[in-house]
Predict the structure of Prolyl oligopeptidase family serine peptidase.
Amino acid sequence: MDRSTPEDKFLWLEELASGEAMTWVLEQNARTEDELFDEDFAATREGILAVLDAADRIPMVTKHGAHYYNFWRDSLHPKGLWRRTSWESYQQPDPVWEVLLDVDALAKSEGIDWVFSGTQLLRPEPGNEYSRALVKLSPDGGDQVRVREFDMPNLAFVQGGFDLPVAKTNVSWADPDTLFVATDFGAGSLTLSSYARTVRRLVRGGDLSTAEEVFSVDPSHVLAYVSHDSTPGFERDVAHDVIDFYNSKTFVRRGNDWVHLAVPTDVGVSLHRSWVLFSPQTPWIHAGGTHVPGSLVLADLAGFLAGTATLRDIFVPTDSTSLQSIGFTANHILLNTLKDVSSEILICDPDRDFAMRTMDLGSPLHSFSISPVDDEDPQCSDDFWLTLSGFLTPSALARGTVATTESENASTKTIKSAPARFDSSDFEVSQHFAVSDDGTRVPYFQVSPRDLPLDGKNPVLMNGYGGFQASLTPSYLGALGPGWLARSTSEGRHGTYVVANIRGGGEYGPRWHRAALQENRHRAYEDFAAIARDLISRGVTSREHLAATGRSNGGLLMGNMITGYPELFGAISCGVPLLDMRRYTRLAAGHSWIAEYGDPDVPQDWEFVRTFSPYHRLDDALPEGTDYPASLIWSSTSDDRVGPVQARKMAAKMMDMDVGNVRYHESLDGGHAGASDNGATATMLGTSYEFLWRNITGQGRGLG
């Protein structure tokens, strides 16, 4: 089947920057803004922006050498400051910062709207301070970046230094005068997913086009990259062949050869000093033993390569627990885990036969995260950062030291605390479970006023994602507070917020994710619908007062709510979405997600992909007079990950079908995030909240 047949009458909107397409976009933007951007919207936007720009936010830091580094945006520096300070200063209420790079000043001087995309610091010689970095700058907020070498002591880019042109680039310092570069080298150098297929070794002063190729992968794979581990005593080059999102191969260099760490491709591999760690996605049988999905397995690297290592299970999940991330201090392994979507932190002691202990947190329905401060600094090698956040609990940052004995409690000290951004004294957080179509219990969080009247009249906003093993956990609702919770209807009802922990996510590890892969994708949508029904049956809300929002894969979720469950929702915000699942592999980075959704070019795959392609579900026969929810579909012109064209086509098709109350909005920059600075973020969120609030409360100007 030719998937570009003329039956798609809106293919012209795929011409990203054509005059016809952009005229349509600007007309839709004007229509949406004319209806929404009034005094109520301005008040909502300003309330959100005040939270995003607040000077008393916690400036999160990363320690390198003696300094603590931070990237900061506020009203005076919308593009941001890359800066650093000392530990003594950081502990003060108002630290003194050394500004390394003022991105606003850089953008003004160079005439390019640079968006800061991160740095990579070069490890200095022992006893020296960090002095060189690779700075990544995006011209429009998308995934493509320019990489430039920066001299930190002199606060300037290095004249004649490394400078890589704008592209989807991965780069690693190999040594002070050499980089491993994975980028667009020209014809044949990219995969079908639009990422680098080859990696080259670029020597200072050399030409990127003639640099030596050191690693490559098949064009059908997602990407290739090579990194250099500069940990003293464990220096090595590591290469990765990312086959798809859940399958890869890892290699370490021995002499001139790449040595494959021979495990099944769906077993994740990471290295730390003398260890190799494995995370299987499916049951892994090795040397007569079975390691369950979601477990953390450890072995000695040299022994594993020699075929003599004993594999040890460090963490084994239960039906209610999952491993989210790990970190290392000098003498301990730090594990961030979930138990029914609430945080549990475990400390593993390798010196005591890998004994495991649980850190006493005492705060259910919150998120805690633990990470090392600097495992190589002898002054603090067993120190950790501990962050706390809850839906109604402003974030706090503590620092502590791992206890040396199991009977001791870790010593912690709160370093920074953010103030409340809205009055939450009359709100409460609860967790509930809905029963999906196949009998699975699906958790969700509800943030609502205390003594909520269960009469079906409360304005409720649901949020969901359900993909790529990503977990939605409690976090402070700073922007959503003024944007939704603190608002009230003419009857004095405040907003309620619901987070749906549906399958496809990682809340219960790989099994929860894989339950909604490809032909089982419908389970994620059934889960979300089950939660909506549960809210309605409990009297929390009703169809006309229920809104839902989701972005990216969550936008695909929203598209399936519009086309599959229109009877459950009064309004939907569908952001930076996948929607045309017949052509998604041809658009932007879509080919890289075949492992998640299936390949529509394969006839047997298209049979099930078709069932969750909202753009095509619009063609399905629905009862005459079906009342679709009011729908705001939005994207970003510079989104080079999903791209805006699927959103454009969905909105245009719905409008062509005379589906009432469909609006479209497209920011011209901001990439897949949809916004490149706090002001743009406030506009994006304000637009979404205003559209939803007005359509489920009847307040504001009519949008019919």
